[in-house]
Amino acid sequence: MLSQNISQKNDSDMTQSKALHPWDVALVYDSLARKTCGHTITWDRFQNVPQKCPFCDNPVIMVCDKLVGISQENFVLFKYNKQTFMLSLNHAKRRAWWDMRECTAQERIAYALGMNEANGLKVLCKGKVLYPNVNQTPTDISNQLIEISENDVENHHKKASLVVMGTRQGQGLHEPREGLFSILLGMGVKLIYDLFKLGCGTVVYLYSFVKRLPPPEEGRRNE
After folding, report:
1. Which among 76, 83, 191, 218 is least buried, having the fewest CB atoms inside 10 angstroms?
2. What are the residues facing 122 on neighbouring strands?
């Protein structure tokens, strides 16, 4: 979240933010339109969001990370407590070079709010729980959250459709919860599953192709 122990000099804070990861820099606004305030603050996900901007004393209604402030691509928009958050999924923080997974929307939310994605996060839309959902893959859930967020922005909705609930536990994105063997095993299982789906698709295609072939001529059958 946003640290309240921030220098009162915005210029020095901007200089410091250049050395930080884009996810660790926040822009705060006093409206969803993001036209006023817009001060840059160091993002501390383990601290509560201040109710007022430390520079202009305006109420903090909207919180964005640095990347969203530059470009609205691949983002998730949601309400948490009394504030609305807009977070980019680009430039994911990875725990090691072998971790090539793409960042999901739920992972990004959990990281920003210092929550445990596995058992401390819940995402709702109009009262319906979208995450967790054992009937969908993490990627499918993420795509759904992104689609809802984009729809909110494109249609200029007055409030975010997604609402986040959960217990902040301070577990970061992609922090080690399993060993290298488990990671490689998971990658192997996914590869086998993908190959299985490819094989099933090939069989179905060949079966459909054979069914469309014309039947052999009667004369040839008698021969």
Report:
1. 218
2. 165
